[in-house]
Amino acid sequence: MSLIVFSHANSFPASTYGVLFKSLRARGHAVCALDRFGHDPAYPVTSNWPRLVQQLADFAAPEIESQGRGAWLVGHSFGGFVSLMCAARHPQLGGHAVRGVLLIDSPLLGGWRARTLELVKRAHLVGSVSPGKISQRRRRAWPDTTTAHAYFTSKKAFAGWDPQVLQDYITHGTVDETDAKGQPQRVLAFDRDVETAIYNTLPHNLDRLLRRHPLQCPVAFLGGTHSQEMKQVGMAMTQRVVGKAHPERLKLLEGSHLFPMEQPLQTAAAIDELLAAMAPSQRSPGHTRV
Fold first, then answer.
1. Alpha helices per DSSP H over the chain
2. Second label for 153, Cα 20 to 30 Å away, from 21, 113, 259, 279?
């Protein structure tokens, strides 16, 4: 049995991935996950996410120590980035070496795109070009879970979701609250201001970070065939980090950027396959440079 430390995509608490986790456990993996990044005042959202990376390290270390074995860091979108950065800065967690990193539709930003992002952030214009311009206006409250469910099923981004995953998102991704008039309502558990801040502080320094802290473990990538994020960012840096000598560590699944929600069982199978593809490299770990 292997240990997976899973990190969620921005705005989707880890509890959204219950179907995926159940399938991974059925395949012999132990899974642990921090439910929401960025909501603990001890780990605020700042540019390039250093404190969020530390939040992952501080969560993972005791989990790994209690299990007495190294872990795979697996993350979806935002979660993939913090997993990679955590492995670079903390190659040892809980007294054990990180076994590898699996990026789930987390195409790495480097080169001229990263430099452009840095300039946009310095000019304080990132809020006008990042997904944060949408998230800051996201609807956050509904009268009840039934209304919330109807709202999300009407949205194109959620239309292809596995029904149980969507139900888990409604059940665990919204919480009870009272509005200004004292009426009960359901609101998003993931604060949209935190979501927006995460988008607006996207790391522009990944290439420099990996030169300063070369990875001591293998990396794999699992992407969606219709991922707009992959098209926008490109795959050049990701392919360098994964390693062109290891095509078996790069796999695509049918679906959008949110394919883990659309095809959770197929995603679990692909994760299992990619972890196995990285496992042989444990005999002679290399240093990944960018």
1. 18-26, 50-67, 78-89, 111-122, 132-135, 145-153, 156-159, 163-173, 192-200, 206-212, 228-233, 236-242, 259-262, 264-278
2. 21
Q: What is the pLDDT along the chain (290 residues), one digit of tens a residue?
A: 799 999 999 999 999 999 999 999 999 999 999 999 999 999 999 999 999 999 999 999 999 999 999 999 999 999 999 999 999 999 999 999 999 999 999 999 988 888 888 888 888 767 766 776 677 778 999 999 999 999 999 999 899 999 999 999 999 999 999 888 888 999 999 999 999 999 999 999 999 999 999 999 999 999 999 999 999 999 999 999 999 899 999 999 999 999 999 999 999 999 999 999 999 755 444 444 45
CATH 3.40.50.1820 domain position(s) in the chain: 2-121+202-283
pTM tops 0.85, yes or no = yes
Is the Cβ–Cβ distance between 230 and 103 less than 8 Å?
no
Q: Return phi, psi of residue 281, to 5°.
A: -70, -10
The tokens for 276 are: 């196995």
Any residues with CB less than 8 A from the CB of 29 and at least 6 apart, and which?
Answer: 1, 2, 3, 4, 272, 275
Look-up of token digits 């950065």: 85
Q: How many CB atoms within 10 Å of residue 257?
A: 22
- Rounded CA-CA distance 80/149 in Å is 28
**Domain covering 2-121+202-283 in this structure, CATH number:** 3.40.50.1820
Q: Which of 123, 89, 101, 287 is nearest to 200 (CA)?
A: 123
